[in-house]
Amino acid sequence: MTFNSVPLAELAPAKINLALHVTGRRHDGYHLLESLVVFAELGDRITVAAASEDSFVVDGPFATDVPVDGGNLVLKARDALRTAFPQHTTQPVAIALEKNLPVASGIGGGSSDAAAALRALIRLWRLPADAETLARLALPLGADLPMCLAGHPLIARGIGEELDPVRHFPCLPMVLVNPGVAVATPGVFRALASRDNPPLAPLDSADTVLDWLAMSRNDLEPAAMSIEPSIAEVLATLRSSGASFARMSGSGATCFGIFDTNAAASRAAAAISAAHPGWFSAATTTRT
C-alpha cells in the first residue's frame, strides 16, 4: 500500500444554524431537531502529513482553548478511521489544526474540525470510504458530524443524522460575532422552556430567504440568553450595524447577521471589532 506523501489540507468551515427548531425528545434523552444549516467560507484548517509517529499540534488565535489529548474530536476521528479500516495499514500521521474559530460557540468548530480531519485522512491513507460509510462512522462522535461532513446547505432532522440537501441556496454576506464567552450546550438544553415545538415551514412557503427566516426560530436562543445575557447585546449590535436579519447560531453564544453586500458586512465587522475589542467579529460569506 502506498500513501500520499504531500501534506494535505482541508477547510473546517463554520457551521451556521440559520434556523433551529426543537421538536421533541427521544427516550434516550437526545433532542429532536429541525435545522436549516449553511457553512461559511470562514473556518479552521486541518493539515495532515505522513510522519514517523503520530502527533497533533494546534495553533491560531484560539489554540489555547483546545485540548490536545485523546479527548479532542480530531484524534477521535483519526482513531475511528483506523478501527473502521483495520485491513488497511494506516501509517503514523502528523495532524495540525489552525484554530481560527472560538471554542464552544455554537458554530460547530470541534465537529467541523473532526469532519475535516476525516476527509483529509481518507485522502492521505487512500481509504475506500464512501459518503454513507463516513456518515455512519461519524455520528457516534457527535450529532453535528454528519452535517459537517456534507458541508453544503441542508435541512437536518432527527438528532442531526437525517440530512436533506438544499439546492440553489443563495450565498449570504454575513458577520459572525461572539462576545468572548463559551456556552455549554448541555446547560442550554437543560434551560429549555419547551421541548415540543412546531417544525420548520417549507422553504417554498416564503418569497425570499429573509421572509422565511422571519417565520422561523432558534428555540435555543432564549435559553442561551438566560445563561449568557451578553447574547442579547450581540444581536442588538448586529442589528444596529445594518444587518437585515440577526440570530444566534446553534446553542450560542455566536450570532450571525445577514447583510445586503459583502462590503457592508466587512464594514460592520470592522466597526464591531473596534467598538468591542474583546469580541470575536468576522465578515464572511456562506458556501453554496
CATH architecture of the largest domain: 2-Layer Sandwich
As residue ranges, the low-confidence spans are none
Radius of gyration: 19 Å
Helix content: 25-40%
Number of domains: 2
Summed over residues and divided by their number, the pLDDT gives a mean of: 95
Here the CATH topology of the largest domain equals Ribosomal Protein S5, domain 2
Describe this structure in a few short sentences.
30% of the residues lie in helices and 27% in strands.
Descriptive terms for the model:
alpha+beta; six-stranded mixed sheet; 2 domains; Alpha-Beta Plaits; single chain; 288 residues; 27% strand; four-stranded antiparallel sheet; Ribosomal Protein S5, domain 2
Task: Kindly describe this structure.
It is a single chain. With 288 residues, the chain is of the alpha+beta class. The strands form two sheets. Strands 1, 2, 3, 4, 5 and 6 form a six-stranded mixed β-sheet that branches. A four-stranded antiparallel β-sheet has the order 8-9-7-10. The chain has nine helices and ten strands. Strand 8 (245-248) and strand 9 (255-258) form a beta hairpin. The radius of gyration is 19 Å and the shape is globular. It has two domains: 8-165, Ribosomal Protein S5, domain 2 (2-Layer Sandwich), CATH 3.30.230; 173-285, 2-Layer Sandwich (Alpha-Beta Plaits), CATH 3.30.70.
Set down the secondary structure blueprint.
Blueprint (H helix, E strand, L loop, with lengths): L7 E18 L5 E20 L4 E5 L13 H12 L8 E6 L10 H17 L5 H8 L6 H6 L3 E5 L3 E4 L7 E6 L6 H6 L18 H6 L6 H7 L2 H11 L4 E4 L6 E4 L3 H14 L4 E6 L3
Helix pairs in contact: 1-2
